Amino acid sequence: MDMNTWRNASLAVTAAAVLALTTACGQEQGTETPNGQAVGAANPAASGGGYGSEAGYGSADGGGGEAKPAGQLAIWDSEDLGEVLTDSAGFTLYRFDKDSAKPPKSNCEGDCAKAWPIVAADGATAAPGVDPSLIGEVTRADGTKQLTVDGWPMYRYAKDTKAGDANGQGVGGTWYAAAPDGGKAAPGEGGGDGGQEPAGGGEEGAEPADLAGLSVRKDPKLGDIVVDRDGMTVYRFTKDSAWPMKSACTDECLEKWPVVEPVDKNDTEGILKKGFVTFDRPDGIQQQTIDCWPIYTFAGDKAPGDTNGQGVGGTWYAVSPDGKPVGAPK
Predict the structure, then answer these.
(1) Structural domain of residue 227, as residue ranges?
(2) What are residue 101's phi and psi, to 5 degrees?
(3) What is the mean pLDDT of the chain?
(4) Which residues contact 18 (CB under 8 A, 6 or more apart)?
(5) Helix, strand or coil for residue 43?
(6) Overall pTM surpassing 0.70 (yes/no)
(7) How is residue 54 annotated by DSSP?
(8) Tally of domains in the chain
(9) pLDDT tens digits for 223-252?
(10) Coiled coil where (predicted)?
(11) Is residue 172 located within the same domain as residue 218?
């Protein structure tokens, strides 16, 4: 094959790949927004999109900045979270569910590390009463040594602005305040749901264990809507976009609207498979999409069949099997 033939063939393959991705993620929908993020490993560096963009611990501009050491670790006894590990200045330390402890590995890079500044390992000392052997370090891809506690990499949160803040707790369903032993801080008495009865609207139906990762439920008011494996209603946010793929729900928003984690295509029933891809969010969280639209559940839904998130703010709507927002204004 001569050089020109090889070059033409390569261009054709590249063009076909781009066309396939464009078709899969619905560029024809006319939902492009500036500075959006594309799908998968080829995602360009995002501009921040609200992830850690508010001034906080990391630096004057909230951009994360240079990794700062923790010094003498301490324990904060939180009424809501139980015993929480802090640095010497009283700032809460966090762990990320997408990381691993055995072996220690951080999966928070790029924009994620701006929202969640890493804790430098240098000079860290175990909190009083905690086994010093739990303190360790992991070398990141850029050579930085990050503090670990029982193997778990430690972070701060850019939006914690003072000692005792724990604004990162539960963000995305993957970020949690660290306990002194590196585990997740356990809610103390008075935390959690406070023993409230579930909100109304639930229906009798299939046991959650019998459901696929995503399936369809016929709601008496909304018709066919998507539910997760626990039978909880799945929602779309009209401020998001599918091409470029982008979520406008960040930080505190994710506490009310947790992302739907990736689901295998074969673990679905009745769901559109076109554009059924994983969204690698700038905050390091992976999110499932339908027709390339990011999908969520609602913290205000307490039982299978609840649809308390429907129409909230005129921007949140249950999702139809083909990825459309049910009942949204045309």
Answers:
(1) 208-318
(2) -105, -25
(3) 79
(4) none
(5) coil
(6) no
(7) S
(8) 2
(9) 999 999 989 999 999 999 998 999 999 999
(10) none
(11) no
